[in-house]
Design goal:
Two copies of one chain form a homodimer. In chain A, 18% of the residues lie in helices and 34% in strands. The first copy, chain A, is built from two helices and six strands, in the order E-E-H-E-E-E-E-H. The N and C termini of chain A lie far apart (31 Å).
Chain lengths: 156, 156
C-alpha cells in the first residue's frame, strides 16, 4: 500500500466531505490506498454505528463503499493519465449511482475492509466493483459509477 | 400523515439503529409516516453532512432512503396483514439491496423529503421505489428491497 491516502491529495476546498474529508471534524475520515491493482480501505466502526445489536449499520456500509470508490476513481484516473496524484488539474469524482447488495449481517466490533477494482474508465465516468468484508468474510458487494466533477467545482 | 412515526413502534431491542433508532443518542433519528399510499420522511441535514461545499453528502442520502424504506416495508406489511402497527409479532425489516441514482447535487441547508411507494410484497420481501427531493426538486432516486427479519432476531 502507498503511504499517503488518496483523500489526503484532495484540494482543501474538496476535503470537507462527511465520509472522507480530512477537514470535516465530525466526519468518518475514510481513507483509501492502492494494493497492487485493487484499492483498499480499512475502517473501524464506532459502537454507535449499529443496525441491530451486534451488527453494522447498512448506511455506514453504503457510505464506506461510496467514498472509497470515488477516491479510487480519482486515483485510477491519475494512473490512467500517467500523472502523480495531487498534480493539477485536480481530479475529483462524485457518485452517479451506488448499488449495494447486503449478503449477510456485518458484525460490529471488528475492522471492516473495503476493496474496489476498476471495471471501466470511459470519458469522465469510472465504473467500479467493491466488496466489504469483516473478519475476512464478504458481507456486502457494491457497484459504483463515479463521474468526474466539472472543473469549475474543483477550482473554485 | 399519521401522528406517530413508523420507527416509534419498533420494539426497544430493535431501536438502536444509527439511522432510525430512537434509542441511539448519536443517530440520525429518521422518522417515516404515511401520506395516503406513499410514505414520507422529512429530514434536516446538519451543516457537517456535507459532500462538497453547498451540497449534501451522498452517504446520508443513501442512509435516508435505506431507513425510510425499511420502515415503509414494516408499515406496509402491517397494512397488508390488516394489523395495527406495533402489534405482536413485531414486523421489522433489513435491507437486502439498495440502489441510488444521484440525479443532481442535493443542496445543503434546506429540508429534505424522501417519498417511497411499495412496488411489491412477495413472501418476506418488500420492493420499494423512492425519491429524494430538496425544495421540491427530485435530486436522487432509490430502489430498495427489504427482507423481513428472522423471528429470533426480533424477539430476542
Amino acid at each position: 500500500m502507498s503511504e499517503k491516502a488518496f483523500q489526503e491529495y484532495y484540494p482543501d476546498q474538496l476535503s470537507h466531505c462527511y465520509g472522507c474529508g480530512r477537514l470535516n471534524e465530525n466526519g468518518l475520515h475514510i481513507q483509501s490506498y492502492w494494493d497492487r491493482e485493487e484499492s483498499v480501505c480499512r475502517f473501524q466502526p464506532k459502537p454507535y454505528h449499529i443496525a441491530i445489536p451486534g451488527y453494522v449499520y447498512g448506511g455506514l456500509i453504503a457510505s464506506l463503499i461510496d467514498c472509497h470508490c470515488t477516491g479510487t476513481a480519482a486515483a485510477a484516473s491519475y494512473r490512467a493519465e500517467g500523472r502523480a496524484m495531487g498534480t493539477e488539474p485536480a481530479l475529483r469524482f462524485v457518485t452517479a449511482s451506488l448499488h449495494v447488495d447486503y449478503l449477510r449481517p456485518t458484525p460490529l466490533g471488528v475492522p471492516i475492509e473495503v476493496r474496489a477494482s476498476v471495471k471501466e474508465i470511459k470519458g469522465r465516468k469510472v465504473a467500479m466493483a467493491a466488496t466489504l468484508s469483516a473478519d475476512g468474510v464478504v458481507c456486502a458487494r457494491g457497484e459504483v459509477v463515479a463521474v468526474r466533477m466539472p472543473e469549475h467545482l474543483v477550482t473554485e
